[in-house]
Specification:
By secondary structure, this protein is α/β, with parallel strands linked by helices. Helix content is 33%, strand content 19%. It folds into two domains: 135 residues, Rossmann fold; 128 residues, NAD(P)-binding Rossmann-like Domain (Rossmann fold).
Length: 270
C-alpha cells in the first residue's frame, strides 16, 4: 500500500520517518513516500494514487488549495480553512480534510492545556493560523488575531484583530505563534512577540518544530511561562491521518519516539 506526501519542492520531511515507523510496528504492508510533484503533474499524481488503490496521502505547500480540484469531496472544516492537507479514501472517493486544526487541539490537550473558556491570541494570518483559529474556536476558546497588517480575507472577519506590537497589553491565556520566525536555519531571529509583556499564567505555543526550542520558546521559558513546542501538532496531525487511512488507532507512542529521536538528536539546530 502506497501513501505519501505531495508537495514541491520536497527536500525533507519527517512524515515518512513517523509513518513508516508506525507501519512497521503494526506489521502493515504499507510505505510512506515523498512525492515532489510539479504543478502540471499534480492531477495525474492524484488520479494515479486513486487508481492503484492508495488509502490516501498528505498535502503540503504549494498544493493545499490546488489539490481540491482533483478530489471528489472536501469536509466542511477543510472548506472553511480553505486548505486540504489530508486526503483519505471512502469507497471509491477521495475526501479532502484538514488535520492541522484537530491535530493542534490534541497537542494542546496532551500538554494539559484545554483551550475551552480561554482567551487565545494567534500570531499570524497564514494557512496554519487559519487552522489553529478554527480549532480553538470550535473548542470553545475566544480567539483574537494579531499580525503586522490586518488580514483582508473574509475568513478573518469573525475574529477581533489587533496590530502587532501595539495593542498587546490585554490579558490572554494562550499565545500561538503561527509564523515561521525562528525556524532553522534562522534560529537566532528575535520572537515576533515578547513574552515579558504578558501575565505569568499565559502559555506560549510555537508551531515551529525545528528547532524545538525556538527563540520564542526560550524567552518564554526564561520568563517563567509554560510552553508547548511545535512537535505536538506535527505528531497528532500525523496520527489523525493514520487513523483516517487505516480506520484504527494510531500507535502514537511509536510515532512520537521516531520524531523525538530525530528532533532531540538534532540539538545542533537548537
Amino acid at each position: 500500500m502506497l501513501l505519501g506526501l505531495i508537495g514541491y519542492p520536497l527536500s525533507h520531511s519527517l512524515s515518512p520517518l513517523m509513518h513508516n515507523r508506525a507501519f512497521g510496528a503494526l506489521d502493515l504492508q504499507a510505505q510512506y513516500c515523498l512525492f515532489s510533484v510539479k504543478e502540471e503533474d499534480l492531477r495525474d499524481t492524484v488520479y494515479g494514487l486513486k487508481t492503484i488503490g492508495s488509502l490516501g496521502f498528505n498535502v503540503t505547500i504549494p498544493y493545499k488549495q490546488k489539490v481540491i480540484s482533483f478530489l471528489d469531496e472536501i469536509t466542511p472544516q477543510a472548506a472553511e480553512i480553505g486548505a486540504v492537507n489530508l486526503v483519505y479514501r471512502k469507497g471509491e472517493r477521495f475526501i479532502g480534510d484538514n488535520s492541522d486544526a484537530p491535530g493542534f487541539i490534541r497537542a494542546l490537550k496532551e500538554a494539559d492545556q484545554d483551550p475551552q473558556g480561554k482567551r487565545s491570541l494567534i500570531v499570524g494570518s497564514g494557512g496554519a493560523a487559519r487552522a489553529v483559529a478554527v480549532g480553538l474556536r470550535d473548542s470553545g476558546s475566544e480567539v483574537i488575531v494579531t499580525s503586522r497588517q490586518k488580514p483582508k480575507a473574509k475568513f478573518w472577519e469573525q475574529f477581533p484583530w489587533l496590530q502587532l506590537k501595539k495593542d498587546l497589553s490585554m490579558s490572554v491565556d494562550l499565545v500561538v505563534d503561527c509564523t515561521p520566525v525562528g525556524m532553522y536555519p534562522d534560529n537566532s531571529a528575535q520572537p515576533v512577540i515578547d513574552p515579558r509583556l504578558f501575565k505569568k499564567e499565559t502559555v506560549f505555543c510555537d508551531l515551529v518544530y525545528n528547532p524545538l526550542r525556538t527563540s520564542l520558546i526560550k524567552v518564554a521559558e526564561a520568563t517563567g511561562h509554560q510552553v508547548v513546542t511545535g512537535d505536538g501538532m506535527l505528531l497528532y496531525q500525523g496520527a489523525i491521518s493514520f487513523e483516517k487511512w487505516f480506520l484504527q488507532k494510531a500507535p502514537v507512542n511509536v510515532m512520537q519516539e521516531a520524531l523525538s529521536e530525530y528532533l532531540e538528536g538534532g540539538k545542533k539546530n537548537d
